[in-house]
């Protein structure tokens, strides 16, 4: 079973009183993503749902467009004698119809857990072209106000470690379809998108995405790759995220806390 947290013995200082306690810490480990036996990325992530992570990564990178583009995604073990290196590989085989040009990949090989878009090679490569939202889903302020509590209740690993981001996908009835946690905000979203891709749920035109942290340009772009019309966050959006939402036709909500929210783009009913 993949562990998303590890137990460490630490010294806790509370008002000058020092004690020895055991504390859970979120796991961060490298994952190599290979496409057609070529290494396309090494991402620092929290282990778990690695096949979804790879699928979501490839979709948001524009390498694949649908589930039909993927022939097989498998988790592979390293042949190295060091056990700690085993299991940190995902191999993706594409359908014959997909024309994959390794030289056209826009991202450098290494991506940290704190930044996905910073691995891009050029400014132009950041602006991947995905279809705009043509029809916004209808969601009420009273309904979406309850989403943070549902997200919090489902964040099992965060409760243990306090060190993970989360992305949650809600259906038109306000129920969570899937939630994923990770040390990287973009990884958590890639896992959600990858799940939707592998379950043939795309495009997510009737769904709402809730993010536990700051809303960046890259998270908006990734959500657009999956056709998500409404994105809400508990924290603030960046200026480029707001501009992207307006251009793409997405509804963007920030500071969703205690029945209050800021609507930066799109419409929310009363």
Can you tell me about this structure?
The protein has 8 helices and 13 strands. With 270 residues, it is an alpha/beta fold. A hairpin with a 2-residue loop joins strand 12 and strand 13. The chain starts with a strand and ends in a 5-residue tail after the last strand. The model is unreliable at 120-126 (pLDDT under 50).
Features:
270 residues, alpha/beta, Ubiquitin-like (UB roll), Cytidine Deaminase, domain 2, 2 domains, 6-stranded mixed β-sheet, 5-stranded mixed β-sheet, 8 helices, 13 strands, 24% helix, 31% strand, flat
CATH topology of the largest domain: Cytidine Deaminase, domain 2
Strands of the widest sheet, in order across it, are 9-8-10-11-12-13
Q: Tell me, rounded to a whole number, the average pLDDT.
A: 87
Largest sheet: 6 strands, mixed
Number of helices: 8
Radius of gyration over C-alpha positions, nearest whole angstrom: 19 Å
Please trace the helix and strand order, writing H or E for each element.
EEEEHEEEHHHHEEHEHEHEE
Helix-residue proportion: 10-25%
Annotation, overall tally of beta strands: 13
Structural category is alpha/beta
CATH secondary-structure class of the largest domain: Alpha Beta
The figure for the number of domains is 2
How far do the termini sit from each other? 45 Å
**Spatial shape:** flat
List unreliable stretches of 5+ residues.
120-126
